[in-house]
From TrEMBL:
Organism field: Pristionchus fissidentatus
GO function term, MF aspect, one: ribosomal small subunit binding
UniProt-listed Pfam families: MMR_HSR1
Protein name: G domain-containing protein
Any one of the GO CC terms: mitochondrial matrix
Sorted UniProt keywords: GTP-binding, Nucleotide-binding
Highest taxon of source: Eukaryota
The organism's taxonomic lineage, starting at the top: Eukaryota, Metazoa, Ecdysozoa, Nematoda, Chromadorea
Any Gene Ontology biological process: ribosomal small subunit assembly
Amino acid sequence: LQMRIRISALLVHSKRGLRGAPHYSPPVINTRALDVAIIGAPNVGKSLLTNQLVRAAVSAVSSKMDTTTKNVCAAITEDDIQLVVVDSPGTIGITHARKVMGLPKGDEKIISDPEGALNRAEHVLVVQDATAPGDYIHHRVQHLLHRHSHLPTSLVINKVDLVSDRTELLELTRILTKGTVAGREIKTAQTTIGRLGKASDTMTLHQDEVKGRDEEWQRKYRAIIDTPSARVGFAETKRLFIEERGWSQFDAVFYVSALSGEGIEPLREHLKTLSTTRRWRLDENAVTTKTPQSICEESVRAALLDTVPSDMAYRLTPRVSEWREDGEILQVVVDINCGKERIARNLVGRGGSKIIEVGKRVNNHMTSLFQRQLFVRILVKFNGKVYNS
């Protein structure tokens, strides 16, 4: 429209015999934005962190790993700043996806989406579980960091509410950052819990990460780093980064509890300071690009993961069969088709107890998210018919 107006103005001036074009001033942009990708090993709390950052329960959450199977785009707009956050699946291998989760061959988004989240990101949050037994960054995460070393990153150490002696986190931080944050050496002595570093103009080049390695290792490194993560075997990255425990290019470190909300506000404010002047990607009232139906289906799946054995839950596919408004009430029906009667029986539970509990949890989640009265009914089906225990 602006271009058409400008062209029309030029034509008018031309007909009047005026020389030159009228002065054109582009509209002033007063908004700021930042695209953030969240990556990490399975079950470190990426989805709950995403929900806390955008102040909405957009991503489905369960106590089991692999709850998130594809990228989830969430957003928060406040203070004229829009943060678009992409919650990605945990970094797993294709064997795990097929044998444990039962994903069919060709359905590999859970493998490729973590890297997909980085492709349009301006900042990366690497989430680490403070209670995990290993003091190293997962080798699949390492692969992504090395492949996208041009992107600024922050380390988010989650679940600090479960750590009784928080001084132990300082040594963990030193290992995970290789003793360097924002290009400066960090001192763990007399340091309190909080953000350890800020963005710096100087950053360590990723080539420094491979110095001192033998020629054979560097040859394998170059070959693997040039290959998209989804096309590199789990064992290959594990062998390559077996001795790598940290990443020296983090701009900042944050300690948070995505469960209680501790430390979330400083992290959110830090991301806002990194935003740049440009137009927003989403409407200011948008909290996600997901459809309400897909949010409901993923909420059911998360509830199933906490209710029935994982080998069953991973293979169940909830589908919304009815979505209608009845006055002020939104009524939703979700079908779960079971290929075997024993799965249907296990899912329903004695007297329907299990599926009732799943329904209550989904209702609570959806009511909180949509801020309206709704009723979700879940139907377990076997051989095309509703199964009753």
